[in-house]
Amino acid sequence: MCGIVGILGKAAVATQVVDALKRLEYRGYDSAGVATLENGRLTRCRAEGKLRNLELKLSEAPLTGAIGIGHTRWATHGRPNEVNAHPHATAKLAVVHNGIIENFRELKRELEAKGVVFETETDTEVVAQLVTDALQEGRTPLEAVGTTLPRLRGAFALAFLFEGEADQLIGARHGAPLAIGHGDGEMYLGSDALALAPFTDQVTYLEDGDWAVLTRAGVTIRDAGGHPVERPRQTIPTGSFIASKGNHRHFMAKEIYEQPEVVGRTIAHYVDFAAGRACPPDLPFSFRDLRRLSISACGTAYYAGLVAKYWFERLARLPVEIDVASEFRYREAPLDPGELTIVVSQSGETADTLASLRYAKSQGQHVLSIVNVTTSTIARESGALAPTLAGPEIGVASTKAFTCQLAVLLSLAIAAGRQRGVLDEAEERRLVDALVGVPGLMSEALRGEAEIELLAREIAKAKDVLYLGRGTSFPLALEGALKLKEISYIHAEGYAAGELKHGPIALIDDAMPVIVIAPSDAVFEKTVSNMQEVAARGGRILLVTDRRGAAEAAMDTFGTVVMPDCDPVVSPLVYAVAIQLLAYHTAVFMGKDVDQPRNLAKSVTVE
Ligand code: F6R
Questions:
Q1: Which residues, in sequence order, are CB contacts of 306 under 8 Å at separation 6+?
Q2: Ligand 1 pocket check for 130: Cβ under 6 Å
């Protein structure tokens, strides 16, 4: 979602601000802007669309100030045009904002009654006008921000630059992340440490409700009550900053190819290969004592949780309830104290997932989070943390984070099965061996890329695509459909294969490819029957299976992707590679912006 950058520098900062914004591009945006102070006067430049449009405008009319703020905007209130782009400014200040001010209409009415005229349709301008109003009443910038923040409802991060204040930036965080970077006689603000990586590896994360006054000499942080507080300064390992495409055309391709390595790294963290044991992180509970497990997440992370439901129920006989976080947070599910909720999130900042976590905590539950960004809010607020070691995921469509989430969840399900006495030592070893074999199988699956690329040309002709699967291949069918629609904009649906005849079979014709994910597992025969139903109605099938499955299905398909043989328990990790490559090549063939699909944001910090 929106990206925020602020720099107190020694020379003109506009170029640095734009460079830092580029590192936040992966979050998704549709307009961008920068404001600086020149001789104490606010100057600003904004542009609709990509950062190159902003750069073009800046090259024609450079901003020269040594203090500045910048923003990439993902529209929530108001169209993604230049007028609504940030920074928003009044005669007194400029402000950039990530998130939503929920009570902006009420505040706007109050200001309009005082005669304030608004230029934009955004909630952000209300913040600019509220602080301006306080300044006009004679308050200092510090006091004006201090009186405004408690009036704002919602989840947001803000950065302010004031007319005439060449050595002061103010940042605030309430629900959306904000980090402070410490330089040598320079200071920085950013939505995440990745944005600040070219300038510093010394970072302080604001806590929820904190606001901070930055000068070139340092930072003073206050909590929501206005009391000065200390927050630790951390050295961010340089490895977490690596954000280049390497030899790949897109981040998504790079991240698909990284999977054998990062999934291997993640598995190594959670299993003792020599002993053949799953080793969960230190947990403040035992799986043995649980009667029910709840899982909550959004999008791809939710599908990882859905796969895990099959694993926990089968391997650990632990009943699992799973829901998308946007529903979980509001449906007031009865959660028993002392039981466990697992939240899954790549970014660790997804607003709905964070709200689910807080709800589960409020019900006295243990919360275990599976996150990729270990400095994120979700990671910090969870009672227990199980990190995925995927490294920064830049492509908006989640790939390597998904398979790393699966690796963590499977290792936890195995550990749970052992603790609950469902699995014996030999079964645990067999499952751990299967998990340890995954990186090699993924490498093998990647070797099928050329064939998948050819099949993608067929998929690219379709207007609609159906994905089918049973058992753990059902969530994978949902994930396959999500991947395809988000980057190629082809309409796709995932269905449990057995549900076909309860409705979707009416859609079958020779124009809609049906992608069947069917490893030769215990439900393979059933899925083959469903394929026959499709074939009998003239449907065109693309089968993703293994050698045995391909031989046994013996069906007229327009393509068969043969995956390496694997233990059915790990097939979701291995088959994920094929469905990712298929979506990727379809979108590339269609000329779509694979890494930054329209309307999407990497980190969804609003509801
Ligand atoms: C799809 C995708 C999204 C995310 C979802 C949750 O490819 O990336 O569906 O999975 O927005 O995001 P996180 O995992 O950051 O909570």
A1: 322, 474, 475, 478
A2: no
Helix axes 299-316, 473-488, angle to 10 degrees: 170
pLDDT in tens, 591-607: 999 998 888 777 777 77
Give CATH for domain 446-597. Answer: 3.40.50.10490
Nearest to 586 by CA among 444, 404, 463, 402: 463
- Judge if the beta carbon of residue 545 lies within 6 A of ligand 1: no
- Among all residues, which ones are annotated catalytic? 2, 602
Residue 567: CA count within 13 A, CB half-sphere:
15
DSSP of 494-542, one letter per residue?
EEEGGGGGGTGGGG-STTSEEEEE--SSTTHHHHHHHHHHHHHTT-EEE
Q: Is the distance from CB of 321 to CB of 292 less than 8 angstroms?
A: yes
What's the CA gap between 49 and 82, in Å, rounded? 9
Answer yes or no: is the C-beta of 347 below 6 A from any ligand 1 atom: yes
Question: 345, 346, 485: which to mutate for ligand 1, most atoms within 8 A of CB?
Answer: 346
CATH architecture of the region 244-436? 3-Layer(aba) Sandwich (3.40)
Indicate the pTM of the whole model. Answer: 0.77
Ligand 1 midpoint to CA 603 (Å): 7
Extract the tokens encoding 191: 């939505």
Crossing angle of the two packed helices 438-446 and 425-436, in degrees rounded to 10 = 30
For the chain, which residues make up each domain, given as ranges? 3-241, 244-436, 446-597
pLDDT average, residue stretch 346-353: 94
Given a contact cutoff of 8 angstroms between Cβ atoms, the answer to whether 324 and 297 are in contact is yes
Beta strands at 179-182 and 41-48: parallel, antiparallel or unpaired: unpaired
Mapping DSSP to helix (H, G, I), strand (E, B) and coil, where does residue 330 land? coil
Question: Taken in order 580, 581, 582, 583, is the CA torsion positive or negative?
Answer: positive
| pLDDT tens digits for range 285-322 | 999 999 999 999 999 999 999 999 999 999 999 999 99
C-alpha 312/C-alpha 417 separation (Å) is: 8
C-alpha span between 198 and 581 (Å, rounded): 32
Whether the pLDDT of residue 214 is over 70: the answer is yes
Domains 244-436 and 446-597 belong to one CATH topology? yes
Angstrom CA distances, 154 to 28, 100, 104, 171, 251, stand at 20, 6, 9, 16, 32
Question: How high is the pLDDT of residue 239?
Answer: 52
Ligand 1 atom closest to the CA of 396, numbered from 1: 8
**Helix (H) / strand (E) containing 193:** helix 193-196
The residue behind tokens 């203090």 is 67
Rg (CA), the chain: 25
Question: What CATH number matches the domain at 3-241, 3.60.20.10, 3.10.20.30, 1.20.58.760, 2.60.40.10?
Answer: 3.60.20.10
